[in-house]
Amino acid sequence: MKVLVPVKRVIDYNVKPRVKMDGTGVDLANVKMSMNPFDEIAVEEAIRLREKGAATEVVVVSIGPAKAQETLRTALAMGADRAILVTTDDAVEPLAVAKILKAIADEEQPGLVILGKQAIDDDSNQTGQMLAALMGRPQGTFASKVEVEGDSVTVTREVDGGLETVKLAIPAIVTTDLRLNEPRYASLPNIMKAKSKPLANKTPTDYGVDTTPRIETVKVSEPPKRVAGIKVADVDELVAKLKAMGVAA
Ligand code: AMP
Q1: How far apart are CA 56 and CA 194, in angstroms?
Q2: What is the pLDDT of residues 200-247, one digit of tens each?
């Protein structure tokens, strides 16, 4: 069974995003970029499935600027077998990504597609669900445990009320949550080896997908600064203040 893992190059989770002066978006010039953390978890899970003998090949794919190649090389250094880079300078939206992934899945016929539950740049949490709908395949989102048995996969999902377990027929779509695993670091020898692993270069047109944005960004602005709190002497003063603010009757 082949496992396909889409990985997105995003602003590093340690970086505090800055909004561009003209309010058209987030300033990405000279900012550290990394693999989306949930995608690292997806790569790790796919590699573990191969190590357990449940998967035979791990293929990673990224859709984005030419520099997304670095993200793919990181995934190859972790242990993925080969990579596909779909280059575009458009800001690709989840639907366009899902359409490209569907075309790749049609070609590659993976048993599982393991995506992150969300990309930490746009926080959309849409691509996996859209891909499952486009492919007409079952989905197990927000996975904290994934077990493959024969032609089915059992996914433990993190839901609001606790945990839910679903059994899906393969081929299926899984999206990862934080507790699924702890991704490995790539060793230096593996980083060197990753340089010679196969990486195919494609474009959205190769898959017949138009990536022109459908959403118009009107304005991007910083969240309002938090105003300083105040200390009250006792409950009476607190209630009086809340009443004065109109938040208590
Ligand atoms: P989103 O729906 O944008 O929050 O992204 C959810 C997941 O879809 C990510 O964790 C990735 O696994 C995948 N994904 C989204 N955008 C891309 C992209 N441009 N290239 C590769 N994978 C992506």
Answers
A1: 18
A2: 999 999 999 999 999 999 999 998 889 999 999 999 999 999 999 998
Q: Is 113 left (phi over 0), alpha (psi -120 to 50) or beta?
A: beta
Confidence grade of residue 249 (pLDDT, cut at 50, 70, 90): confident
Q: Ligand 1: residues whose CB is within 6 Å? A: 6-8, 36, 38-39, 42, 62-64, 92, 94, 97, 115-116, 118-119, 122, 124-128
Domains detected in the chain: 2-245 (3.40.50.620)
* Nearest protein Cα to ligand 1, atom 6: 118
Phi (first) and psi of residue 145, to 5 degrees? -155, 135
Give nearest CA residue, ligand 1 atom 10: 116
Bridge pairing between strands 172-176 and 199-202: unpaired
Distance 228 CA to ligand 1 centre (A): 37
Using CA atoms, how far residue 96 sits from 29, 127, 143, 220, in Å, is 24, 9, 24, 22
Greatest pairwise CA separation for the chain in angstroms: 71
